[in-house]
Design a protein that fits this description.
By secondary structure, the chain is an alpha/beta fold. About 5% of the residues have low confidence.
Length: about 475
């Protein structure tokens, strides 16, 4: 009987592992996604939600941006076409940020702040009455009812993205600093402590869980990107219920790691990890300049080469890059971001073979650069971050070194070019099983304008020497 029980447990864990692996396969193969931060904060170009939370912009001024959020030139099909051109395979859009404005047709009402609460947090500011109300509390806090856009913006996006062949992801903030039943408000102030008023917290959870249910029902997202988790524990969020709401009717959906133990993949933010993130699957979310949303004063855009260097670092570690753009309030995408996505797309199209469906590259010490490996481990791709010179350089080749490769290289070429790469093996001793060092001479005229990819075809699945050198 005991043996049967352990066999059952083993079978259950095996099935679960297989199910998780299947659910995540598209994500692991996708490699590149586009993050879209769009909301009322684009009107004045303020920091999304944080500007009022941190006290740099008065709350009333921030929320009044809703009156200018028109989405007048919003074209979901053009967004989808640009994202496809970039080489991205999925997109994640903000359905609701920490300010509480929903971009879809939510039915949940956000109560208006009471006069007592208002005077407590803003003693020197006039309470917004009906005449100058921040929003109409008789209607949901949604772009449909509270902005001149007067429509659901997520439905046409999800339709356009899916018609273009993209996987569709929804960003959703678990916290809502505009909701009077949410404990936290401004950085230095709380509305209440959960322990002192559990009924109030329960009301907020009911609100939040119903919104997640709406998103799940209306859009059936392929991916959920939760945020705002840091303010409460997994138990306080009732993450188990969130997981149940989603997976009962949408079993293939994957969740980012900010839902803690219920997350499927890790999501480091802005800074490239040095060691592999906690979960096997992961993505780096990265802004195209310094801001998540549209801020015209932020002109510190990353160059295409900088983005591609970071992207190839992610690929080398078996992860994805989720690159952010911030559309304007009228729905147009800044020209700098359009240019960046098109330039990234030129590179990804040329080097698709070395990107999509690949696995992590060589371990540290074998090659001074980033690399990827084909699924069958018989093709190795080396990324060379040395651009073609337009000057009078005397260098006709770029020399690369590869250590510890036991395999025979049957072909070496520059991907996306007809150029062959001559190679030479040095230090190989005939009677020692330790491999020699491979030197590759890449023709300088074959270099890409950003990052070059060298394709090495191996005679068998990758086999590496990891010893101390010499005769060992």
């Amino acid at each position: 009987m005991k043996k049967c029980f352990f066999l059952f447990l083993f079978y259950s864990f095996s099935v679960q592992a297989q199910t998780d692996s299947t659910r995540l396969q598209w994500f692991n193969d996708a490699k590149l996604g586009i993050f879209i931060h769009w909301g009322m904060y684009a009107v004045n170009g303020t920091s999304e939600s944080w500007s009022f939370h941190n006290g740099t912009v008065p709350y009333a001024v921030y929320m009044n941006q809703m009156k200018g959020f028109s989405a007048a030139k919003f074209n979901p099909k053009q967004w989808a076409e640009l994202i496809v051109e970039s080489g991205a395979k999925y997109a994640v859009v903000t359905t609701q940020h920490h300010d509480g404005l929903a971009l879809w047709d939510t039915k949940q009402l956000t109560p208006y702040p009471s006069k007592t609460d208002w005077n407590t947090f803003f003693p020197n500011q006039v309470y917004p009455t009906k005449k100058n109300a921040l929003w109409n509390p008789e209607k949901p806090l949604s772009t449909i009812y509270q902005t001149p856009a007067a429509k659901d913006l997520i439905t046409p996006l999800s339709k356009a993205f899916r018609e273009a062949g993209l996987k569709f992801g929804t960003y959703y903030s678990l916290l809502d600093w505009s909701h009077p039943d949410y404990p936290k408000f401004l950085k230095e102030t709380d509305r209440y402590k959960i322990a002192d008023d559990p009924a109030r917290w329960k009301r907020f959870l009911n609100f939040m869980h119903h919104q997640i249910s709406e998103i799940n029902t209306q859009f059936s997202p392929d991916l959920y990107w939760f945020d705002g988790d840091w303010e409460h524990s997994e138990a306080e969020w009732n993450a188990a219920k969130i997981d149940s709401i989603i997976h009962t009717s949408n079993p293939k959906a994957i969740l980012n790691g900010r839902l803690h133990s219920y997350g499927d993949y890790s999501t480091p933010e802005q800074n490239m990890p040095i060691v592999h993130p906690e979960k096997k699957s992961w993505e780096l979310c990265l802004t195209s300049n310094e801001s998540w949303g549209y801020q015209p004063s932020d002109t510190n855009y990353k160059t295409t080469n900088e983005v591609l260097q970071i992207f190839t670092e992610c690929l080398n570690m078996g992860g994805n890059l989720l690159l952010d753009i911030g559309p304007k309030a009228d729905g147009t995408i800044p020209e700098e971001q359009i240019k960046l996505l098109k330039e990234v797309g030129r590179w990804t199209q040329k080097h698709a073979e070395a990107i999509y469906g690949t696995t992590a590259g060589l371990p540290s010490g074998h090659y001074h650069g980033n690399s990827t490996l084909s699924q069958d481990r018989k093709t190795l791709y080396l990324f060379v971050n040395q651009i073609r010179s337009n000057g009078n350089s005397q260098n006709t080749t770029i020399d690369l070194m590869l250590k510890g490769l036991k395999n025979q290289i049957t072909a070496a070429e520059v991907l996306g070019s007809n150029a062959k790469v001559p190679l030479k093996i040095v230090g190989k001793i005939s009677w020692s099983w330790v491999p020699g060092t491979v030197f590759l001479k890449v023709p300088a005229e074959s270099l890409d304008s950003e990052i070059t990819v060298i394709k090495l075809t191996l005679n068998s699945p990758l086999d590496l020497y990891e010893g101390r050198g010499g005769f060992h």
